[in-house]
């Protein structure tokens, strides 16, 4: 089992920045992919960004150039730096890891972009 705890969400004005963190604990050996998803009201959950074990990253087109995913292996923590936030970035953001083909999810953290 893998436990994931997200922190860092909140209310921010358009153009502002936030950094989300996802601390992983438990049996983390074998994690092959870590990423962030988001779900806005009335919409399906969508991939924001992910990073695979080799270090390569993928981003949704809507966040390219504004968001950066990174990880600290020593701290077993995944980050999402979000800059130039827009109202359409408002959503619940979820941390996700894949281990031996099984997906694990955090509880989610709310990000609201509004003036």
Overall description:
The protein has 115 residues and is an all-beta fold. The protein has strands spanning 2-7, 10-12, 18-26, 31-39, 46-52, 57-59, 67-72, 77-82, 91-99, 102-105, 109-113. Strands 2, 4, 5, 6, 9, 10 and 11 form a seven-stranded mixed sheet that branches. The protein is globular.
Main attributes?
single chain; 11 strands; four-stranded antiparallel sheet; mainly beta; 58% strand; 115 residues
What's a concise summary of this model?
The protein has 115 residues and is mainly β.
Query: What would you report as the Rg, rounded to the nearest angstrom?
Result: 13 Å
Largest sheet: 7 strands, mixed
User: Using DSSP, what is the number of strands?
Assistant: 11
* Residues in helices, as a percent range: under 10%
Number of helices: 0
Shape label = globular
What is the CA-CA span between the terminal residues?
40 Å
Strand proportion, as a percent range, falls in over 45%
Class by alpha and beta content: mainly beta
**Low-confidence regions:** none
What value does the average pLDDT take? 95
Sketch the topology as an H/E string, one letter per element.
Answer: EEEEEEEEEEE
Topology:
Elements: E1 2-7, E2 10-12, E3 18-26, E4 31-39, E5 46-52, E6 57-59, E7 67-72, E8 77-82, E9 91-99, E10 102-105, E11 109-113
